[in-house]
Amino acid sequence: MNKLVINGGKKLSGEIKLQGAKNSILPILSATVLTNGETVLENCPDLSDVYASCRILTHIGLKVCRENPDIIVISGTGAKTSEIPDSLMSCMRSSVNFLGSLIGRCGECSISFPGGCQLGPRPLDIHLSALRSMGVSISEEHGYIKCTVPHGIHGAKITLPFPSVGATENIILAAVLADGETEIINAAREPEINDLILYLKKCGARIQSSGGGNIFVEGVSSLSGTDFRIMPDRIAAATYMAAAAATGGAVQLNCTEGIDTDLFTVYFEQMGCRVYNSGKSVFIKSGKSIKPVKSLKTMPYPGFPTDMQAVFMSVLCCASGTSVFEENIFEDRYRHVDALNRMGADIKVYGKIAVVEGVERLYGAEVSATDLRGGAAMVIAALSADGKTTVSEAGHIDRGYEKIEQILSSVGADIIRKS
Ligand code: UD1
After folding, report:
1. Rounded distance, CA 313 to CA 407, Å?
2. Which of these, 390, 373, 397, lies nearest to 47 by C-alpha position?
3. Is residue 27 lining ligand 1, measured as CB closer than 6 Å?
4. Which residue numbers in the chain have pLDDT < 70?
5. Contact at 8 Å (CB) between 401 and 23?
6. Fold topology of 22-229
7. Which of 93, 165, 172 to mutate to test the pocket of ligand 1 (most atoms within 8 A of CB)?
């Protein structure tokens, strides 16, 4: 039993140090398999998914040391095994990145299908077809993906049918030590992919990214370790800003250097909040009331992120009118709606559309986190609600938010964890 108990109705106020990005550190941890020597990662978030990745690295044969909560040191000279059992793979979705790094390093791997949030079908066809075009032979047996490279892995020209984040990362990881050149057309453009590229380039990889969806990789014979600072987490930033907005509060996020907030602050401004981004920090002050947002459509970057849909929805539950969401990335990413309705929200789902009729107030209830971002949305709704809410299955939330109860308490929330 791991639950968060929240007494709502407290305006959040104060400063928060923003955590490092989950979606950056996880692929970078899997990339360390490709390197020789020592990698020192700074600004590492304290997340259960990070520990799960470190357990996989240790299983593979690398030495992993967490020197203080912020710094992880990984050292090794390759992989002692290229097999990852289901018990390690099923903890999170990002374990799929070990597919690209193990193939790139060992020329073979056997991994079970990855776990992660249940958001509808999450196939791997784009990953596998790209790897096949690079000379990888793949079979799927008893829930395991088995890969071999009979004639060496080689570069290829790959056009993605959809700019998949995971597939783009896997192709880059498989290509950096491959023979020849790889070109990815219609690659995902998320900033965290750029962080992976920056890390690999510091290790000696040759990668060019147009920033417009074309990535060019020239294979090299080896990579060294390096020091690297993980970028700040823009999804966590939006979550804490949403918490401030929903409670009528004012919060400053520090350590936000380099994150592009324009993509989502525009919606906070439509809600009537004021946002200032100094480059080093982001400040949000809620308006007197929350105004509705007419249309919020999730799209691949640089569109509105699917990872922010749930937390924005919880703010708009109490808007002075109707807001409409369109979820275009995942088929089943409205699983938090039942919990929000249980707390008094008025949300109707029609396939990929969700219509949120603003209500005067939410009230506390017993709810259960359905997934990482859906769980965060329930916490935000609870912070603004009248009375006590219990969010059970809080382990989902710990996959992406570092010590969420301590951070929210530090800005005035009444929230405790019961384990
Ligand atoms: C996705 C999000 C990412 C988010 C993460 C966790 C996008 C584009 N990606 O990344 O921002 O951080 O979830 O919530 O917003 N697909 C296939 N075949 C494949 C791969 C993907 O059909 O081989 C489909 C998926 O089913 C899904 C869509 O493409 O509908 C997005 O997939 P992808 O970007 O690969 O997912 P993640 O890497 O998990």
Report:
1. 21
2. 397
3. no
4. 1, 115-121
5. no
6. UDP-n-acetylglucosamine1-carboxyvinyl-transferase; Chain (3.65.10)
7. 165
